[in-house]
Amino acid sequence: MTMILAICVGVTFAVSIYLMLGRELKGVAMGVFLLSHAANLSILAMSGSPIMTSAQQAEEQEAQKHLTSVDSPIMKDPPILADRYANSDPLAQMVDPLPQALILTAIVISFGVMAFLLTLIVVTNRKTNTLELDELAEEARQL
Amino acid sequence: MTDHRIILLCVIPLFAGLISMALINRKVLSRLVGVLSFSMMLGLSLSLLLKITAAPDDASILVSQMGGWSAPFGISIIFDSLSGMLISAAAMVGLGAYVHSFSVINPRTERRYFHPLMQFLMLGVNLSFLTGDLFNLFVAFEIMLMASYALLTIGGSKAQLTQAYKYILLNVLASTIFLMAAGMVYGMFGTLNIADLARIVAEIEADPNRDLPAGFKSLAVMFLLVFGLKGAFFPLWFWLPDTYYTVPISIAGLFGGLLTTVGVYTVARLFPLIFASDGTSTITAEGWMLGGTSPIIQTILIVAAAFTMFLAVLGAVSQHHVRRILSVHVISQVGYMVFGIAVMTGNALAGCAFYMIQHMVVKCALFLCCGMMEKHAGTDDLDKLGGLLKRDWKLGVLFFIAAMSLVGLPPLSGFFGKMVIIREGFAEGMWYLGIIGLVTGAITLLSMLKIWSYGYWNPDQAPVTNKPEAVMASSKPAYAAITVLVVCALFLGLGAEAVYKVANRAGAQLENPQQYITAVLGEDAYDEVNKLIAEREADTVSPDAESLTMIEPEAEDKP
Hints:
The complex is a heterodimer of chains A (about 140) and B (about 550). Helices cover about 65% and strands about 0% of the residues of chain A. Chain A has about 140 residues and is mainly α. In chain A, helix 1 (about 1-20) runs antiparallel to helix 2 and helix 2 packs antiparallel against helix 4 (about 100-130). Chain B is built from 23 helices and four strands. Chain B starts with 7 loop residues before the first helix and ends in an 8-residue tail after the last helix.
């Protein structure tokens, strides 16, 4: 699971850098958008795999013997459902909630930056009638 | 020691910004609110700084836990000597640039939310100086950066719009790397609290059997990349000269002093405490543990300092516009601060702290003087300026004092900063950095004298766009601001001994993490480290004890 996530993060970073090095400002804005997505995915990977290892699975099935129904103990629970701290290590049974809080904050921040960047692009287009980076650089050099 | 007044340093600019947004079309009221906010911040930070300077060692760091949640689970707001010095200098510089803007800013620009943006910028800066949590540092950086993006493009001239993208995109990239690195710190250590990280690293250092987790060094380099981009180290400095060239001059004064210093501050806070460690330590004759410095991080810092100091000042000498010269000098002075951090002893870090505050004040004064020069002559091109001393001798005197402070002539402030840093460099064996520092100082003198002789000392040949008397009469706030900043710089220079009392404390707190850790995490947080040190000392002592018992075996009872 973490492997798939790592590959996703890598591909998203590659695509965003490719867009940011492009010719038009619109592509650059899309690249910035994807950059924040890639960083958020990488933080998600820091919470570890949501699939229990076989040792943790065995311990879970031990703890659940007194229940009549046996759920499949393969995926970890979110913290609100994991109220049986039968394990010595609570993180063996529940998903780590802190990286998700970090990701929420980061999404909100990048949303604000994105809004500002898009407004800036609109105003630049109005002032200089172009969005090609080469022409903008030409304008900058003349000033 | 717990003191909940610290967070007022962030609450005051927040509320002042919100009130200014309501008063957006009323010039006098919003200016009054802004000046009040800066003065309150300055007064509060100076009083807290005096309080902790007079206090003994165990009460010298003020901590406030947000929401009452205890560290390391809650967010700590920490006010130690370094934060206090920097917040006071930031409030001073902010007040100066703000009052200066009353004389030079375009009224249309002022209506574009200039006043709230200045307050939110100070909010971000103060929060980043105060916070004790890595993710909160990220949030504070973002607040500061958003306000700076908006201030950069305020007024929306073509020049500003085309140059702003460099700054914005580079900072977005740096923020993304910061986010990833903060996530990785959490994955590696399980905590994001700076004091807790320092405690874990100190425990790893004290224990000879444990080693730092894999990937620690690359994480340190990632953080160096982020803060280097913010602070304009070599080779991440290319955005600075173009960006500071197009902003309104008061904002350039504020940015030039403030934003790069935030980058240097985070390196000074995090690296001696956590990231420059190599996981080992040595026990000296006095029995004290010294944390090892990772050679590769120190090499990177030394190379960055050397190239930043030297190449930037060569770049400054080749320029002909006063604003560009001053912008590139910002980079060169940052090189001195990195020199102080690279040496990584307590005295060098104290010198770096002193240099940071004197640089903020002097650089802002220089930029504001440049603003007045532009108002007199309509241009900042040195080929077209001249004779400003005859037109306006007060400005000439103020500029000369500020310029010589930057160069480092005694008894002005720059001298004391450079002296301590270069002396510590020579003492630690980095003589090559010391020589580069001295040569850079000489070339800085050359560059400042170039502005002086072309702009002020020349016979009068500048275009007279405004009559000197009219300019001086209409710019009283600007002259007041520049005078206050220059007087502050003079105080830092002539009263350097008093300021160094505070700076030495800051350096000592940066070098030895014990005070910081026990202040945030409680008295018993450092006990594990002390226990490990005692065990290692006992191991080195026990061979003698063993030989003694072997001579008299009957004296011992077998269990």
